[in-house]
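anyone seen this seq b4? input:
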Amino acid sequence: MNLLTLTKENLAQEHICCAIADKKNAVGIARKKEWLTNRFQDGLVFRKADVRGKVFIEYLPAENAWCPIDADGYMFINCFWVAGRYQHQGYGAELLNSCLLDSAGKKGIVIISSAKKRPYLSDKAYLLKKGFEVADTSAPYFELLVKRLQNDPIMPKFKDTVNSSAFNHNLGLTVQYTDQCPFVDYYVQRELDMIGEEFDIPIHRIKLESREQAQKSSAVFTTYSAFYNGKFLTHEILSKVKFSKLWEKIKNV
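predicted toks r here
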């Protein structure tokens, strides 16, 4: 199996798996590549299978992660994705093993998941089979999983800044986000405006521009988190159609 590692030298020529041919995400792809370029100096590794599909892993030392966790000495998997057509062919195991090899000397590896399978979060059931265990939880459904490589008595955990009702001073829809995902830009810039107009609600955008901001975030999933009237709504990227399905549940909250 041929794995490719992205670097500053080859990043411009290589696709980044997530949004290969979707023209509406062109700006998001450029922003993601710029974000990656700036993170390479922090020890970030982006490794993918040499296929034209979503088969990749992205990780960096947890001290440099854009995530509100206390996990010094660990490696943090930022994203781990094997698309359906490539599953059960050993790609996931190979990518995860490459992370393990790069984590030699670390206390272990941590990753964000959830009790049940959810979009944009790695599959807990798969990770448990690979030796991960639950280190910490955060409302409403996030879990911090760890694969321990040393017998450290102190488990990684979410920071005390995490709060699912952190934006209670904002009425309407608030979205906190970063450039970590190439899909985000289009939906934050275009779809949020359409949601605001369609449902006649205020829209607030909060972009995290630095690791320090992300590590102090009140939202576990800094790539994209939506709050309605101050309470956490979802970590899934919202389109107008997706928001309309939630509207009946939340409009009177």
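The chain has a mean pLDDT of 92. Residues 184-199 form the longest helix (16 residues). kinda curious what u guys think
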